[in-house]
């Protein structure tokens, strides 16, 4: 986990260095920069989730979290591939970003909303109250 933390900090530093350099040269594609900045919370949440699952020995969710983390990283790398305004937008990375986002919404909707809230299959803190 310490290696992942160090790699994450280095990746964050290099990303901000790249964004700053492109902004300074007026080559930053602002829509892609907004996507990168909006993904910071999900990457932090994924990092924290890995720490929490490992520390609490909650290994049943580890693979699920790992899958979401890897796909989020792939999506962020695809956005970074299109961040320079001088280069034309590449359709394949944009399709990857859209598909990852759609899959995450559908998967979490099924996991968190349908299974826990509608079907009452979650734990006490995950299901709605019955009146």
Main attributes of the structure:
131 residues, globular, 5 helices
Question: What would a concise description of this structure say?
Answer:
This protein is mainly alpha-helical and 131 residues long.
Please provide a written account of the structure.
There is one protein chain. With 131 residues, this protein is mostly helical. It has one domain (2-118). 73% of the residues lie in helices and 0% in strands. The chain has helices at residues 2-24, 30-38, 40-55, 62-80, 91-118. Helix 3 (40-55) packs antiparallel against helix 4 and helix 4 runs antiparallel to helix 5.
Domain unit count: 1
Indicate the radius of gyration in whole angstroms: 18 Å
Strand content is: under 5%
* SSE topology string: HHHHH
Q: Which stretches are low in confidence, meaning pLDDT under 50 for 5 or more residues running?
A: none
The portion of residues assigned to helices is over 70%
The largest sheet, given as strand count, sense and whether it forms a barrel, is:
none
Averaged pLDDT, please? 86
Morphology: globular
SS elements, strand count: 0
> End-to-end distance, in Å?
44 Å
> How many distinct helices?
5
**Which structural class do the helices and strands define?**
mainly alpha
């Amino acid at each position: 986990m310490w290696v992942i933390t160090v790699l994450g900090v280095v990746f964050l530093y290099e990303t901000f260095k790249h964004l700053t350099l492109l902004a300074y040269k007026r080559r930053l594609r602002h829509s892609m920069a907004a996507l990168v900045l909006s993904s910071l919370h999900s990457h932090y949440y994924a990092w924290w989730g890995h720490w929490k699952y490992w520390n609490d020995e909650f290994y049943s969710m580890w693979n699920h979290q790992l899958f979401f983390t890897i796909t989020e990283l792939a999506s962020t790398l695809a956005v970074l591939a299109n961040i320079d305004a001088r280069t034309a937008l590449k359709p394949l990375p944009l399709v990857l970003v859209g598909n990852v986002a759609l899959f995450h919404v559908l998967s979490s909707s099924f996991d968190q909303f349908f299974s826990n809230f509608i079907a009452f299959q979650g734990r006490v803190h995950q299901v709605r109250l019955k009146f």
